[in-house]
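May I ask for a single protein's sequence together with how it folds?
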Amino acid sequence: MYAITIPEPGGPEALVWTAVPDPKPGEGEVLVEVAASAVNRADLLQRQGFYDPPPGASPYPGLECSGRIVELGSGVSGWAVGDEVCALLAGGGYAQQVVVPVGQLLPVPKGLDLVSAAALPEVTATVWSNVFMIAHLRPGETILIHGGASGIGTMAIQLAKAVGATVAVTAGSPDKLARCAELGADILIDYHQQDFVEELRKATAGAGADVILDIMGAKYLDRNVRALAVNGRLAVIGLQGGVKGELNLATLLGKRAALTATSLRGRPLGEKASIVAAVREHVWPLVEGGRVRPVIDRRLPLADAVEAHRVLELGGHVGKILLVAEGVTSRD
């Protein structure tokens, strides 16, 4: 088969479409013929040499995909060759075929085409596990979502609104904020022009956010804690703003607040399977009912991952960037 490889770390041009050995499913795994994959910031870090795949994972980038099952490993039940699926991966999505642990498979939601389904596994698993399973966002609470126009952000807005929360977002332009508003965001903050702590305080009559979903890490740490409500929960899922910051524990203590930091890729298979099962139970009905949808900025050929990485790095996109296999259309 062919896959996107990274012979040497570097810029987008370090990605090379080349022939590689065909994968074979082991016990409890299936082989999926990839229809589409999606680009995540973790892929950029892997390309730059900063985020190696966990032991035993595919060396190729790509943390999610959609496609059709073409082979079952031993001990697999409940799935059949020919089933249309999407999947959460530890790597390998930028390829014509990928091996997937059975616990990380999801059926393509009814009413959604096969290609678009590739935009769902990573964002739904990340948002559901952090916002709902860990931070326990409840109806009537306020959530602040940093990077509201990103793939994570656009999904978090929709899921938070679906459970009856008030949604505040930060984004870097009026156009991006307008797109967030279309998805249901209530409080719109341009981080280039406005202080999100002050804007959130004004919008919530001084209360602050019950939950904050943060992709920035160190750069926003102090302000995030100040923006929390009493009994607030800060969920850090990214480090785009650095890895080391100062935290005023007295402020955290005074608000009886909690801070969590998680990643998804390196979790044990059992934990990933539990998250995927929760996504299927809670998120899939919302997708099939039309209340939640993947937001897709553009589709590019799978072999053109170089351009996809350039687009993501420039930051002008809204939602997900998909990589589509040759001969596959968005109707598949």
User: Anything to note?
Assistant: The radius of gyration is 19 Å. The chain has a mean pLDDT of 96. The first strand starts at residue 2 and ends at 5.
